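Methods — Computational structure assignment.
A single polypeptide chain was analysed. Its primary sequence is given first, followed by the predicted tertiary structure written as structure tokens.
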Amino acid sequence: MNKFERSVRLMPELCKGCINCIKYCPTQAIRVRNGKAVITDQYCIDCGECIRICQNHAKVAVYDSLDSLEQYEYTVALPAPTLYSQFNNLDDVNIVLTALLYLGFDDVFEVSGAAELVSEESRKYLKENKDKWPLISSACPSVVRLIRVRFPNLIEHLIPIDPPVEVAAQMARQRAMEQTGLPSEKIGIFFLSPCPSKVSYARSPLGKEKSEIDHVLAIKDIYPVLLPFMNEASKSTLDLSISGRIGIGWGAAGGEAGGLLAESYLAADGIQNVLQVLEDMENRKFERLQFIELNACHGGCVGGTLTVENAYVAKTKLARLRKYQAVSLSHLEDQPGSATYWKKPVEYEPVFQLGKNLKESFHMLNQVEEYCNKFPGLDCGSCGAPSCKALAEDIVRGEAKETDCIYLLKESIHEISTEITQMTTEALESDAGDSGCIHMLQSFICQIADQMERLDSHMEVFHKKEEEEE
């Protein structure tokens, strides 16, 4: 199964084979095999945790470059509100928007403007669907993907409205076509993203066949080339902003919930916290809540791995910038039908299912339990899997061996050593011409050499982990 796009990639030449990433991955999508990390496509949700935690910078996000502008006759930049939080002492977002035009874009369209429209439409949906409370935000692609693969019972609680970036792309393309008379294919829509999950969204969108976003650029790449144009833009600033306090607030955790004006809500950020909230929701702990906002990145989108500023500093900057903004500048009555709903349902994807059917799954689960009973339960990670249970599942799937566990490997070596000793004794006591004993002895020697090599590999990983902890 490979139904998901993945923008997070591994650079094998930089990977040292440590096990930090396997411990922090929320979906256990990473294994260490033959001294290198391996990412399983269908398990990865593009949350970027491995990028954050990798000390060797072996995990990277794949996205587009500014050179892509040359492919189109007319280009539009869609700046995420997170972009504003990267600059010091910014008091007018129009400076950033004007600088983007100086950089080479023909037009700009604020994602925060579309966010205000989505907030209005979400308020209506919230009132009309009380039977589905608490409703969950669908703005973070990583969270939606996590729900699709691990929490199928919560899919019906997702708000089925296109995220602000998609609404902004639709409106920007329509405006560009009306103003220029150019066909759609000659207009390039560029989203300036704070995280890898939105790169994947543009390539494989939710609730529709194709996104209106043509290319995704990283904020961390745009930031240094935009700085030289900021001074010039501050001298002759154009009035381009179409958003207020509500829209800009979407850039940080709690911003979307604040824009909904809900009486009771929960806002959680950081993928581990998100997991806890989803588990609690599945256990019906939040039935009195109206709305739940979840962000995979700490601090919200400001904490994305494609940004340059510290997440909490950026959050403070965004709060200061919003202080003197109007509450909202974009309204649905001015843009009827702009906040669109999903065209096709978002479905459960059982990527973690062991068997092809119920009978096979039960059989394999019993095998997993048997292996888990053999393992020490330390979840040390030396086997290359994040936990003993994960290793057991890998073995049942045929992707690993029982002796990948360093403790079982030691037992195996001890057993073979004992048998070699016995065979050696028998060979010495038997006739010199007993070739059967000699062949068996040679076979055991080969086995123990192979096992010792595996043990050396495990111990190398184990020692690396100890050194990093010190």
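Note: The two ends are 40 Å apart (CA to CA).
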